[in-house]
Amino acid sequence: MKVEKIPDGQVISRTPFPASRKVFVKGQLHDIEVAMREISLSETKIHNGFGLTEKNPSVTVYDTSGPYTDPNAHIDVKSGLPRIRENWVTGRGDVEKLDQITSAYGAQRLADPSLDQLRFAFQHQPYRAKAGQNVSQMHYARKGIITPEMEYIAIRENQRIELWNKEQGEQAEAMSHQHPGNSFGANTPKEFITPEFVRQEVACGRAVIPSNINHPESEPMIIGRNFLVKINANIGNSAVTSSIEEEVEKAVWACRWGADTIMDLSTGKNIHETREWIIRNSPVPIGTVPIYQALEKVNGKAEDLTWELFRDTLIEQAEQGVDYFTIHAGVLLRYIPLTAKRITGIVSRGGSIMAKWCLAHHQESFLYTHFEEICEIMKAYDVAFSLGDGLRPGCLADANDAAQFAELETLGELTKIAWKHDVQTIIEGPGHVPMHLIKANMEKQLEHCGEAPFYTLGPLTTDIAPGYDHITSAIGAAMIGWYGTAMLCYVTPKEHLGLPNKKDVKDGVITYKIAAHAADLAKGHPGAQYRDNALSKARFEFRWEDQFNLSLDPDTAKEFHDETLPADGAKIAHFCSMCGPNFCSMKITQDVREYAAKQGLDEADALAKGMKEKSREFTEKGSEIYL
Amino acid sequence: MKVEKIPDGQVISRTPFPASRKVFVKGQLHDIEVAMREISLSETKIHNGFGLTEKNPSVTVYDTSGPYTDPNAHIDVKSGLPRIRENWVTGRGDVEKLDQITSAYGAQRLADPSLDQLRFAFQHQPYRAKAGQNVSQMHYARKGIITPEMEYIAIRENQRIELWNKEQGEQAEAMSHQHPGNSFGANTPKEFITPEFVRQEVACGRAVIPSNINHPESEPMIIGRNFLVKINANIGNSAVTSSIEEEVEKAVWACRWGADTIMDLSTGKNIHETREWIIRNSPVPIGTVPIYQALEKVNGKAEDLTWELFRDTLIEQAEQGVDYFTIHAGVLLRYIPLTAKRITGIVSRGGSIMAKWCLAHHQESFLYTHFEEICEIMKAYDVAFSLGDGLRPGCLADANDAAQFAELETLGELTKIAWKHDVQTIIEGPGHVPMHLIKANMEKQLEHCGEAPFYTLGPLTTDIAPGYDHITSAIGAAMIGWYGTAMLCYVTPKEHLGLPNKKDVKDGVITYKIAAHAADLAKGHPGAQYRDNALSKARFEFRWEDQFNLSLDPDTAKEFHDETLPADGAKIAHFCSMCGPNFCSMKITQDVREYAAKQGLDEADALAKGMKEKSREFTEKGSEIYL
Questions:
Q1: A437 and A557 both lie in a single domain
Q2: Please, which residues have CB within 8 angstroms of residue B432's CB and are 6 or more apart in sequence?
Q3: B283 to chain A nearest CA, in Å?
């Protein structure tokens, strides 16, 4: 497939999407501008001999690519993205700007002159909640406050569907048609998402807004079963150390194609500095697994990990602006023997590290014993929990076993503790699960975790296709997304085999956008089907460019089409490149409709009444269609 | 991705699969040899300090690649494959060898000397049922006869699972573990498929054995909801006319990666001759859409089609050996207006052609009015019906509408007529359907068509990803396969955009093998999970080569792994290329087990009892694991 070409010397992908422009929708409650992508479409030619045309209204879609795809935006990775949320954060009057980084490790790195050339140019002093304050979105929601973040999200989730019916005219009925969904008891609004609805969902813990006060560059987004299904892309620095700009590009590249959040799983010496660059330049929330960095600090000796070291690592990352932490606090000593008879044992890295610590110390892990202290840190910066499933199954045979579900129940207990502190919480899920056992995972999660958002890795529905696990897992991801999972962690073709390259990351992201969107359609998210309808209409009318531009990956769609019919003429040709002129069924159906139009008849009437005339007409110039 | 390298001058792909050999299992009722693929595995090293190893039994898998992957087989496309079924056919005493081709068109082509260099070298005289005889497998099944085809299929579907438990020894329990499936009322046997069970399923019409008496080269296979889910790959000659060998290679290539049947959708001047080459060299059943060729015979003027011309085309292709015909006999005049308000109208080529004919003549199509005469032809050669869904939806918006389900009911009526003649029948299905509306398709098909095998195209679960429709459709295909669909027609990445190349065909086939296998696992087909278990065990034990060899696409799995860790040493390295030594969770879990082994303890006991010692051991040589 095509590897995107980036102009020489330009490391950061900035090419705008074809026929698209950024639009900024103003808020009504707050002074905010919600960035979206508007795709303009060409006109439909009405083949009635009078050269009439019909306008096709533009389609507005959810856009995760940030300012990078806006030609009017000035981008300089050294200064970072605009800090759009900073005034909102300070405006609430419950935060203080710290004179200095308060984590020992962070301070030590800052003091090291040998890192000067690595360090992000402009050092922002971190914010923290004033003593006794709680700055989590959940805390505000429970106090009845609709924050700018909440209004931003409401507008963003609606994708301007209110415009569509207005502009449609005659096509309104067909174009706005959407099959009623089945959302398994989720109470998604039928018409629009309102700011108040966002507040209610966050207040009850059914949705999470990852929004560290130290990551004001991120565009607010929400994770919850009553909202659009989101996807996460994992990035990590490669063994061959690449430049800072290349590290930033990995995040930009993933967001460009649709990643709603990024997890930075980098390892090695300079992850502190690399993370700073990524956060400062990321328009989407950033998640991490702090235990990875903690392990590096003890040279990989799991048993040497301590609460104090881990605590300092949490503060270090919280003050950089990490929006959510994966924490494997559910791996209890007594659960570990339950994995002994598994085919693949423990496959979660964090889970293995904590299992090893528990076995080495013969104690419950500090993640579990110090959980309330962790909550205190989370609410001081509004970092959300992503409670890790350290005992998830690593193969179909181990799916839905005692170890997995025992941990899930513990995650449910921890969720209630987090909520006691108004700390936002997500629950992580599997993994490898055959199709018929997927639903049980969703049902148990809802049961034990009080509808806290579920965040799953796939699940993979078979183990026999290494090299294609983006596909084996997209099947499970689409299904569990439909059942109620709020965010899907992508899997790339390299899963189980190696480190993903740029093409793998794009393949993983696009594949997961497909799974997430398929789930939105099945759940019946308001307006979810509109883009499908618009693309299908373009397809039927042979508006090739519109088809490409409405697709998740316009570059690949256009490239594949051009392989067969490279000429520009072909893109307005009235037959599809698949069938050729003699065989294009869509063309044949069009002829029937044009006939109706010429007769000035309703299509159904035309088809019913006009058959005899059509029979004569066909005999007269029967072969016309195919010439 | 990798494009398979074929040795210079060799057009036909013949490279055997790694660590694999052909095995031939003898029948007990009949003198037959069932070809399968046996994958041998390396030993497991038990890390107890004594250098002990443990044997891993070989895994036998279903093999559609025919003699091409057997290094002992002599292949000459000019003489075709061995005619393994010819004696079975003649042995039944109910067929006659015709002196000459009985279709006018076939005779005309044969008489044309300008075609001599195109024509398949060795002309076989066609077989036909003796007057008054019915040679369909359904007819034999209903008479209580277990044919060699039926026994072949029973042995083939079992994949020698009877061996596994024997050879497993200690691992038997874990390795033979399979989650009980949910097959939605299909009565799949729990243990083995028996020849008698095959007969019963064919007799009641719930399964079909496509096996034209004039295609004795094909290895018997079955399509039914109580058997392994099958996949079909479409091939067609490209506009740029390629050599005969290249046309044959397309079929060989698709079978190599797992196509259970091939549909030849070629068009143009020499399809008669091309088809002969493909059939003579195809180890899997061949399907066609005869109306395509009929349309060519009238220069693409649908309204000029006649019953006589179509009838001659059926005989022409039946005498060449086509195993199943897609026939769109359900497109009735009164259904056509039901498509008028659709976004994409009629998208089936055959459906459009017949709709056009109906409108032009203001009559029901000859496919419908002459259906019983068609049955007479089918049973004289044992060609199976694949009743085409000419009114299937072409976009999500049109899914499950009145036109689609009206046609489905008519297909149900036609099925009963076909069964009256003991003619084997499959029903074709959609298309484009959102996830939550897929099940209704399966349920209505079962209801209206008396459990005749369902054969669907995907369905695609969203319209917004042209370029990735193998994935949008694999999601729907896996689900509908689980619900009971017997065969899945593949979709390639080029769907809606252009003609698939070799890489697209492979991507489509592998993607559909994934969907079909995921469905087998969810239905609980006997032994379906064994290959997953074996691959997972290899993964846990870092037996990289075994992982590659057990996968659906060993070449790509190995290539992806080598991109990150090219050294051969890496393939036995005790860490996974994804995580690296510090982070490999599987390695950490292994250490726990090795510890148990060293203590000579049961793993669970070891984990429970041994923690204190382990704690000390870890402190002593804690960092060992990571060095």
A1: no
A2: A536, B393, B394, B395, B396, B398, B399, B458, B459, B460, B463
A3: 24
